[in-house]
Structures are given as C-alpha cells and as structure tokens.
UniProtKB/TrEMBL annotation:
<dbReference type="GO" id="GO:0005524">
    <property type="term" value="F:ATP binding"/>
</dbReference>
<dbReference type="GO" id="GO:0009236">
    <property type="term" value="P:cobalamin biosynthetic process"/>
</dbReference>
<keyword id="KW-0067">ATP-binding</keyword>
<keyword id="KW-0342">GTP-binding</keyword>
<comment type="function">
    <text>Catalyzes ATP-dependent phosphorylation of adenosylcobinamide and addition of GMP to adenosylcobinamide phosphate.</text>
</comment>
<dbReference type="GO" id="GO:0005525">
    <property type="term" value="F:GTP binding"/>
</dbReference>
<feature type="active site" description="GMP-histidine intermediate">
    <location>
        <position position="50"/>
    </location>
</feature>
<dbReference type="InterPro" id="IPR003203">
    <property type="entry name" value="CobU/CobP"/>
</dbReference>
<comment type="similarity">
    <text>Belongs to the CobU/CobP family.</text>
</comment>
<comment type="pathway">
    <text>Cofactor biosynthesis; adenosylcobalamin biosynthesis; adenosylcobalamin from cob(II)yrinate a,c-diamide: step 6/7.</text>
</comment>
<dbReference type="GO" id="GO:0043752">
    <property type="term" value="F:adenosylcobinamide kinase activity"/>
</dbReference>
<keyword id="KW-0547">Nucleotide-binding</keyword>
<keyword id="KW-0548">Nucleotidyltransferase</keyword>
<keyword id="KW-0418">Kinase</keyword>
<comment type="pathway">
    <text>Cofactor biosynthesis; adenosylcobalamin biosynthesis; adenosylcobalamin from cob(II)yrinate a,c-diamide: step 5/7.</text>
</comment>
<dbReference type="GO" id="GO:0008820">
    <property type="term" value="F:cobinamide phosphate guanylyltransferase activity"/>
</dbReference>
<dbReference type="Pfam" id="PF02283">
    <property type="entry name" value="CobU"/>
</dbReference>
Length: 178
C-alpha cells in the first residue's frame, strides 16, 4: 500500500533524523534518495559521514540533484524510501536553470509531475522539506523567489501527502493524519 509522508520544519529541527527513525520501522531494504550537491569540502564530508551512518543500518543511497522521477523509478522495489530533501531539489533546479529563470508556475508543474509519480509507487515514501516562510521577508529578489518556489512546492506536496509532520525543536507535530 502506498503512503506519502511529508516532514517539514526549520533548519536543524530534526526533520532528517525523524524521517530516518520512521523509515527504520520498516524492515530492510531501505532506500535514501539524496538531493544535496557536493558544493564544497565541508558538504562532501557531511555527505560521506551520513552515508556511512546509513550503511550500518542497511540503507541503499542514490544521489540525484534534479531528476527525482527517474531516481524514484530506479528505487521502486524498495518498501520504504526517504527523499531528503525537496528544498535542495529546488535549489538545484534554480542553479541549473539560472537564478530567476524558474517561474513559480513551472515549479508548480514540476512538483505536480513528481507528486503524481510518487503516487504510483508502492510502499512508504517519506519526503523531507524545509519550511522557509516563517521568518521575515528576504531583502533580495532571488531569496524571495526561492522562498516562493519552496512554498509552492510544499503546499502541493502537503495537499497530496497522506501525512504531514511539522518538526519543532526535535518534536514531531502531526498537522495532517492519514
């Protein structure tokens, strides 16, 4: 049976740890779909550390920055998949298409296409994203555009997810239940 859980919250709120703990409730094999680019040495070291931690718990990791539907197809035999995270996916799309060249309407289309793909999967898909709209309005157009793209993506995903959890200071708060 297919289930989509969206986990959102601020930076360092415990989203990824919670997603992993929920996935660990399922027997192996488990898959982790990572969207984080290896931007610099610190990020590469962080990615390596996280991969080693997951390997000990029998995770299969796939790194994909932009084509999440293709990556999800390759992982369709896994009963549980953690996708971490939508926010970096949007960052990557912006980077590859050029700062403001990704209109909000196109982001909505890409999100709809990907959510539709997610709904065809069997098993449990746990998706991590950042809640970027709780702070002050950014002072530059690129930051505002990024915030708007993430907000649009999150709204679409949340509307179609079976469950939505908001992480606050490491505490999960269910805001939509199955």
């Amino acid at each position: 049976m297919r289930k989509i859980t969206l986990i959102t919250g601020g930076c360092r709120s415990g989203k990824s740890a919670y997603a992993l703990s929920q996935a660990m409730r399922h027997a192996a094999p488990r898959a982790f779909l990572a969207t984080c680019p290896r931007m610099d040495d610190e990020m590469a070291a962080r990615i390596e550390r996280h991969q080693k931690e997951r390997e000990a718990d029998q995770w299969h990791t796939v790194e994909e920055e932009t084509n999440l539907s293709k990556a999800l197809t390759a992982l369709e035999s896994y009963p549980v998949i953690v996708l971490d995270c939508l926010t970096l996916w949007i960052n990557n799309l912006l980077y590859h298409q050029g700062t403001l060249a990704l209109p909000e309407e196109r982001m909505a289309e890409l999100t709809e296409e990907f959510v539709t793909k997610c709904e065809t999967q069997s098993g449990h898909l746990i998706v991590v994203t950042n809640e970027t709209g709780l702070g002050i309005t950014p002072t530059n157009d690129l930051a505002r555009h990024f915030r708007d793209l993430v907000g649009r993506c999150n709204q679409i995903f949340a509307s179609r997810a079976d469950q939505v959890v908001l992480m606050v200071s490491g505490i999960p708060v269910t805001i939509k239940a199955p």
